[in-house]
Amino acid sequence: AAISAEGFRCLDGSGSLLPAAALNDDFCDCADGSDEPGTAACAGQEGAGAATEALFFCANAGARPRYLYRSRVNDGICDCCDGSDERRTGACPDTCLEDGRSHREAESKRIRAWEKGTELQRRLVESSEMDLELWRKEAESLRAALPELEREARERKAAFEDAKAKLPPAPEASAEAPPAESTSPPPDGPSAKDAIARRAQ
Q1: Given pLDDT bands bounded at 50, 70 and 90, which one contains residue 195?
Q2: CA angle in degrees (0–180, nearest 5) for 27-52-93
Q3: Per the confidence metrics, is the pTM higher than 0.85?
Q4: What kind and span of H or E run contains 8?
Q5: Where is the composition biased (Basic and acidic residues) (predicted)?
Q6: CB 96, CB 73: distance < 8 Å
Q7: Helix (H, G, I), strand (E, B) or coil at 4
Q8: Which one of 22, 108, 177, 190 is most buried, counting C-beta atoms within 10 A?
Q9: How many CA atoms lie within 13 A of 150 on its CB side?
Q10: What is the band of 68 on the pLDDT scale with cuts at 50, 70, 90?
Q11: Nearest to 81 by CA among 103, 66, 71
């Protein structure tokens, strides 16, 4: 319903301006049920927007809010932990603080985990930035040293070639090796042992 200082109009535009007292008065004035969001008076109403307006909202402060079909409002069953769906009977106490304890604890854990993850991410970003800066400086240092290293390499190569050119040529091996001397006695001559024996005689 569109509420104004004068009253309110049904969301589907049907009907005339209704007084504020007609809102949630347990009487369905609008075809779409938009004048009874907090009661079950328009449950099952088939009008334009009935699919969206046929729900009752439980605020459930301290716990999770939820929506109910308005047919479950004032039916004697406590569906909302704040008891708002059974206000006519007053049979449902507000238990949202107790009911929402586990939800709040889980939410608190989720927030702590998120904060821890955010802090870890921040540290990793800072560490990465420091590493990048260090690598950038090392790269600059290497680029600055490269010309000197190249000059030194050229000088050493030139010195090596110069020393190589001053070496005497290696002797060339003879094409034919001289024949090896024979140590065996002549086939027909006396042996040294026979000569010594004759002298002793």
Answers
A1: low
A2: 60
A3: no
A4: strand 8-9
A5: 153-165
A6: no
A7: coil
A8: 22
A9: 6
A10: confident
A11: 66
Give the start-to-end residue ranges of the domains of the chain. 100-163
Looking at per-residue confidence, does 154 or 35 come out higher? 154
- 71 neighbors 44 (Cβ within 8 angstroms): yes
Concatenated DSSP letters of 49-67: THHHHSEEEE--TTS--EE
What span, in angstroms and rounded, lies between the C-alpha atoms of 105 and 52?
32
Distance (Å, whole) CA 160 – CA 39: 102
Name the CA dihedral angle for 130, 132, 137, 140, rounded to a multiple of 10 degrees.
-170
CA distance 83 to 62: 13
Closest CA to 50 of 65, 73, 28: 28
**Count of alpha carbons within 13 angstroms of residue 158, beta-carbon side:** 6
The angle formed by the CA atoms of residues 178, 183 and 186, to the nearest 5 degrees, is 110
